[in-house]
């Protein structure tokens, strides 16, 4: 360019130069011409001229060239205003109409040149109003949807230049519009990069200042609690910068109210506030929990800021943190102006499917918190609770504590109705009932009867939920209700004149109220009213004389026309019938041609109640019900029930078949008809010997399974199973076989249909007790019921705990927890009844069947690995528990059972509860049988030492068997176990040593002096070994548990087998917690428990946690992004260190090294392939550091070439390896340019690479292990390099 200008300067005169400038249209040629003009102008050898720069209004030109041209043109043009106007017009057009980001970027660069010109010339920016609005709107449009480099250019260059040259009014307007845009789009990065344009330290000036703008602070709080992490960081940065200005200012009077605390330690409060914000992003509990103590130091800040902290911490991933903060809020928050906001945040946080000490404590604190509320705030709390989709555990925890006896708030009836409506949506039936009872108990206790309307509404709520609560409520308020009885009496009679479905409910409950308070009513007038319907009469039948009711019903015969109206009349005649009614009905059927269909069906119904013969009933049914195609559910139900009643034992096979045919057709109708049939089968079952009935029962069984899957109807299940499990029915072998198959179908659906297994087990037990010989048919079913139960997941476990608490708080019969365990207890009662009540010969056969079935089920899980409280674990446990009850009566199966137990010890690994039952069972089965004892001794000698659990499991068995023998047998125990006492396997060594020491203690108790003298040296030696072995000492204190010393081996009662052993060995409490309560409830004869469950209702409170004691000395992580925001210049944190990891194979090691590289600012990391960064093992340790570290690929075979190359670039290549010439790490002085090569995890650095290394360094070691993990070694070397270079 300089040479071009020199040539042009030599050949061109001023006139010629001016002429070329004014006519040139090529930017590349134009630029040197105006440069020459500018130089001559500076030399004073020429004047400014008029010319156009249209050549640069083309975005295809290089942007740097056009910027250069425009800058020079502004200096030499005689009419800069025109030039500026043209440029601004072009730029604004492109801001709005640019086809792509390149055009916009080009235009905004030109515009920035104009701004820099004004800034350089110290002139005010002269824009027309339209240009001003167009420019501002165009810039905001660009910010909204452009690429990041363009946005960055505008923020870094255009913003500062524009605000510097425009007048204050325009600046305020521009900043205001920009902030509105930022607020709407949440573009906080704009504020972060040019915050000094928007905030001013002088608060008393009229300039635009975000620090005085409420919307700015509201935006900050919104973004701090936003789930987008980048917005949180930006908001925290802006808050920090803003508060730094505010806290260092002397005049705070102009600030918004929510920043004025009035406290002297404002700086300290905000310092702690920022520490809490920082810590909130940490997941590690050991970092977060101690910081919660600082909450008390910021509680004087405005609620706007406290609510931010609450929201962030209440959404923390650690529930302990959530409950801690929730407890703090409940104990300390008293800002009643923001009460609703507090409650909304709290409810959202504590709505968790959890049941533990922390969660219970929060809900207890919620109850204490309610004691501080007034009536209006309590109702607000209830209203807000309706807006949450509660999990069952949380809503129980909330309502069971807020509706406490310490308060007596009055709840508006409409709010109460909405609460009950909300509770009826809870999916868990038992928890739903518990919550409703808690609420209604509270309301009935505190309710004041003020008006009849409210009384009826409250009574409807109570009666629809719990009859007992309703009756107690009426009795409790009887005196006040008597005052309203006249008004209620009048309303009931008014109902007769004008009724609808809602009034019918009020009529029913009003009538019941008057009955409960013993108010006499005279309803005879209703019989004279043409508007009185049969539904009313059905409810009031007890109030009428029989003759009056009879005359009324007879009169109804003449007016009934619609079949739908017949249903209620039929049910009324079912309650009351007479000879006159029968005559009226008979006459209608005799003169049927003169009567309508409804009258004929009603007449048939009256006759059917009065025990007409089956054949006549079938004839009438076909003629009137089927012919008229009656669909009314209540009518069909009525006739089905009466058809079954008409079946006598003497009815003919034809009549029976036709009746069954009618019933089968009825099964195809609504569920209610099916339920009626299933609940009324007793008369049909009297004909069970008929094939027709057997086929019908199979159909009924299928219908029941379908019904129970869709609608778990407990009453129907109880009635149906009670009928089919009658002892006399099982005398029919065919029915017995059908019933057995049906029982298995029930078991298949029992886990999804509540109460099925429980009712089946109960009915089967009653059957066994009445007819023991039939019980043997159901042995396999009984075994399945003993093993019944599913493994509960976390959600079900929480429901279990809640049901336990409800059972204590509100005792009730249908607790699913009691039913679940009662299912097994009923089945066990059947087993024990059979083996205790039968003759010896029958007993042996029954025991054999049970043992065979139990062994078969055990073998299904043989050698399968299982975990604590898994399905296999619990089934094995229950099998062995049942075998323990049977062991006294086992004869023929004894050897098979012993072999199974011994093989199981040798081949399987067991949970402690299963192992202890197996040991106990084996001890009791073998007893004094020397043959089996010798077999176990031989097994112990031959078992592979690679299975120490097998040997250690049999040692306690052999010990207990031997000590019950004569002294001569004790020597054999020492002979067998002595080799193990000196073995290499720790567990076997300890078990053997303890067994021999226990044998010595037994000898002392039994005063076996000769034995003690013989083995005195052995005892002394073993005792010294154990005392000298610190690790063994710990195990010895618990080893006695493994020798079954925690219960009596002679007492195989239910409490020990089912309660003590599972509980002592950590089996889930679901398995043993309710045994006593369930057995006591059913008063079993054989399944009895002498322990008493102590349901844990107390909790460990959190009031003493550190949340209320401020401690500022907490662990605090570094937050590098803050430093990056404070220093917008390019980072200087990286160094000239290159790490080579191509020889390393394990992704976890590479992930850890990548994280270390990011922390220490390593320049580059070399891997064999960067695809490793996608692997799960890598990511588990890298913590996303791969996104910030420069990673390159160098294959292992290319390492030689790579090392040679970096050495040519001046790098010193260092290997982390122990060699003959390696130097100690602390003695080596690292050059600035260093490459570190790390070796393979096993082989280290290969021999072919070591000669290429400039130096090898080794890390000093002071222990016995030869080497460090490669990740750890690399981190140590990198730290040493950084320490030398940076510190």
TrEMBL record:
Residue span, tRNA/rRNA methyltransferase SpoU type domain: 1137-1279
UniProt cross-references to Gene3D superfamilies, sorted A to Z: 3.40.1280.10
InterPro entries: Alpha/beta_knot_MTases (IPR029028), SpoU_MeTrfase (IPR001537), TRM3/TARBP1 (IPR045330), Trm3/TARBP1_C (IPR044748), tRNA_m1G_MTases_N (IPR029026)
Swiss-Prot/TrEMBL GO biological process terms: tRNA methylation
UniProt entry tagged with the keyword Methyltransferase: yes
Family annotation (Pfam families): SpoU_methylase
This protein's record includes keyword Zinc: no
PANTHER family hit by this protein: METHYLTRANSFERASE TARBP1-RELATED, RNA METHYLTRANSFERASE
Protein name in the entry: tRNA/rRNA methyltransferase SpoU type domain-containing protein
Annotated organism of origin: Zophobas morio
């Amino acid at each position: 360019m300089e040479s071009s200008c020199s040539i042009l300067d030599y050949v061109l005169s001023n006139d010629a130069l001016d002429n070329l400038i004014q006519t040139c249209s090529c930017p590349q040629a134009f630029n040197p011409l105006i440069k020459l003009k500018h130089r001559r102008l500076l030399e004073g050898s020429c004047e400014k001229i008029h010319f156009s720069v249209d050549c640069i209004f083309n975005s295809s030109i290089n942007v740097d060239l056009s910027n250069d041209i425009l800058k020079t043109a502004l200096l030499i043009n005689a009419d800069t205003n025109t030039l500026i106007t043209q440029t601004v017009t072009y730029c604004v057009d492109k801001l709005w109409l640019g086809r792509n980001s390149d055009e916009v970027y080009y235009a905004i660069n030109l515009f920035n040149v104009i701004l820099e010109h004004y800034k350089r010339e110290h002139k005010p920016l002269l824009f027309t109003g339209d240009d001003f609005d167009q420019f501002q709107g165009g810039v905001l449009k660009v910010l909204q949807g452009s690429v990041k480099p363009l946005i960055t250019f505008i923020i870094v260059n255009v913003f500062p230049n524009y605000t510097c040259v425009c007048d204050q009014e325009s600046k305020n307007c521009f900043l205001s519009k920009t902030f509105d845009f930022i607020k709407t789009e949440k573009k906080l990065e704009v504020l972060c990069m040019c915050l000094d344009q928007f905030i001013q330290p002088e608060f008393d000036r009229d300039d635009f200042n975000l620090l005085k703008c409420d919307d700015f602070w509201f935006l900050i709080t919104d973004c701090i609690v936003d789930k987008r992490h980048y917005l949180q960081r930006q908001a925290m940065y802006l808050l920090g910068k803003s508060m730094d200005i505010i806290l260092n200012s002397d005049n705070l009077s102009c600030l918004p109210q929510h920043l004025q605390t009035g406290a002297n330690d404002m700086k300290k409060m905000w310092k702690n506030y920022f520490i809490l914000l920082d810590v909130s992003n940490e997941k590690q509990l050991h970092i977060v929990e101690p910081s919660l103590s600082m909450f008390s130091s910021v509680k004087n800040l405005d609620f706007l800021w406290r609510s931010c902290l609450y929201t962030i911490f209440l959404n923390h991933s650690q529930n302990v943190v959530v409950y801690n903060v929730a407890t703090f809020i409940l104990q300390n928050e008293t800002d009643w102006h923001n009460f609703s906001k507090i409650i909304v945040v709290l409810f959202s946080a504590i709505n968790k499917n959890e049941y533990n000490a922390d969660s219970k404590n929060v809900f207890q604190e919620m109850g204490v918190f309610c004691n501080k509320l007034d009536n209006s705030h309590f109702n607000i709390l209830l209203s807000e609770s309706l807006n949450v989709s509660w999990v069952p555990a949380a809503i129980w925890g909330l309502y069971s504590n807020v509706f406490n006896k310490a308060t007596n708030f009055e709840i508006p009836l409409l709010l109460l109705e909405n609460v009950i409506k909300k509770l009826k949506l809870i999916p868990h039936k038992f928890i739903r009932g518990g919550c409703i009872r808690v609420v209604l108990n509270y309301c009935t206790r505190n309710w004041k009867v003020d008006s009849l309307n409210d009384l009826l509404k409250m009574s409807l709520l109570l009666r629809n939920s719990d009859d007992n609560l309703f009756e107690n409520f009426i009795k409790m308020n009887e005196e006040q209700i008597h005052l309203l009885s006249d008004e209620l009496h009048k309303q009931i009679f008014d109902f007769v004149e004008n009724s609808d479905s809602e009034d019918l409910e009020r009529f029913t409950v009003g009538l019941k109220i008057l009955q409960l308070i013993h108010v006499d009513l005279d309803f005879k007038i209703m019989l004279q009213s043409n508007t009185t319907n049969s539904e009313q009469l059905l409810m009031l039948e007890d109030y009428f004389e029989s003759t009056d009711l009879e005359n009324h019903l007879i009169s109804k015969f003449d007016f009934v026309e619609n079949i739908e109206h017949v249903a209620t009349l039929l049910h009324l005649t079912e309650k009351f019938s007479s000879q006159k009614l029968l005559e009226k009905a008979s006459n209608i059927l005799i003169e049927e041609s003169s009567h309508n269909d409804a009258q004929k069906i009603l007449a048939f119904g009256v006759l059917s109640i009065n025990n007409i013969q089956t054949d006549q009933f079938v004839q009438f049914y076909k003629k009137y019900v089927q012919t008229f195609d009656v669909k009314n559910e209540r009518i069909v139900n009525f006739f089905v029930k009466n058809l079954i009643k008409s079946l006598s034992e003497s009815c003919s096979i034809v009549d029976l078949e036709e009746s069954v045919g009618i019933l089968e057709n009825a099964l195809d109708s609504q569920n209610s008809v099916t339920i009626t049939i299933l609940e009324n089968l007793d008369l049909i079952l009297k004909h069970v010997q008929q094939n027709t009935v057997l086929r019908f029962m199979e159909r009924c069984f299928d219908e029941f399974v379908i019904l129970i899957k869709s609608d778990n109807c407990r009453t129907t299940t109880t009635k149906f199973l009670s009928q089919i499990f009658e002892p006399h029915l099982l005398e029919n072998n065919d029915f017995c076989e059908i019933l057995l198959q049906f029982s298995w179908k029930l078991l298949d659906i029992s886990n999804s249909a509540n109460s099925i297994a429980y009712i089946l087990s109960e009915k089967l037990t009653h059957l066994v007790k009445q007819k023991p010989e039939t019980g043997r048919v159901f042995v396999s079913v009984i075994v399945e019921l003993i093993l019944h139960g599913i493994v509960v997941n976390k959600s079900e476990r929480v429901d279990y705990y809640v049901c336990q608490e409800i059972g204590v708080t509100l005792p009730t019969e249908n607790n699913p927890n009691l039913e679940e365990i009662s299912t097994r207890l009923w089945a066990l009662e059947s087993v024990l009844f059979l083996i205790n009540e039968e003759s010896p010969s029958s007993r042996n056969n029954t025991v054999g069947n049970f043992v065979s079935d139990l062994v078969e089920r055990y073998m299904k899980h043989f050698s399968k690995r299982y975990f604590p409280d898994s399905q296999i674990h619990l089934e094995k446990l229950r099998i062995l528990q049942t075998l323990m009850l049977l062991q006294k009566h086992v004869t023929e199966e004894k050897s098979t059972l012993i072999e199974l137990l011994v093989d199981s010890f040798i081949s399987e690994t067991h949970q402690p509860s299963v192992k202890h039952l197996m040991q106990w069972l084996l001890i009791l089965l073998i007893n004094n049988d020397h043959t089996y004892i010798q077999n176990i001794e031989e097994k112990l000698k031959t078992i592979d030492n690679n299975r120490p659990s097998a040997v250690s499991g049999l040692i306690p068995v052999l010990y207990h068997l031997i000590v019950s023998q004569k002294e001569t047998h004790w020597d054999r125990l020492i002979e067998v176990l002595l080799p193990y006492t000196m073995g290499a396997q720790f567990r076997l060594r300890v078990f053997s040593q303890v067994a021999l020491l226990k044998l010595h203690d037994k000898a002392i108790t039994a005063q076996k002096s000769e034995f003690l003298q013989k083995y005195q040296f052995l005892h002394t030696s073993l005792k010294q070994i154990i005392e000298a072995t610190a690790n063994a000492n710990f195990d010895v204190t618990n080893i006695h548990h493994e020798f079954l010393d925690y219960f009596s081996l002679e007492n195989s009662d239910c409490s020990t087998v089912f309660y003590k052993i599972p509980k002592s060995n950590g089996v889930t409490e679901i398995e043993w917690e309710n045994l006593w309560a369930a057995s006591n409830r059913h008063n079993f004869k054989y399944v009895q428990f002498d322990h008493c469950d102590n349901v844990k209702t107390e909790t460990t409170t959190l009031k003493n946690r550190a949340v209320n004691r401020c401690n500022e000395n907490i662990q605090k992580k570094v937050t590098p992004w803050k430093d990056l925001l404070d220093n917008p210049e390019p980072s200087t944190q990286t160094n000239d260190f290159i790490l080579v990891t191509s020889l390393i194979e394990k992704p976890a090691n590479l992930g850890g090294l990548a994280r270390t590289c990011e922390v220490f600012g390593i320049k580059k990391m070399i891997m064999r392939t960067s695809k490793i960064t996608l692997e799960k093992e890598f990511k588990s340790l890298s913590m996303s550091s791969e996104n910030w570290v420069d990673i390159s690929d160098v294959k292992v075979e290319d390492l030689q070439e790579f090392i040679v190359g970096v050495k040519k670039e001046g790098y010193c290549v260092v290997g982390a390896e122990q060699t003959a010439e390696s130097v100690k790490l602390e003695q080596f002085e690292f050059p600035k340019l260093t490459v570190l090569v790390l070796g393979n995890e096993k082989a280290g650095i290969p021999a072919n690479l070591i000669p290429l290394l400039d130096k090898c360094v080794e890390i000093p070691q002071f222990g016995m292990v030869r080497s460090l993990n490669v990740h750890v070694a690399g981190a140590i070397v990198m730290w040493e390099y950084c320490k030398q270079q940076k510190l």
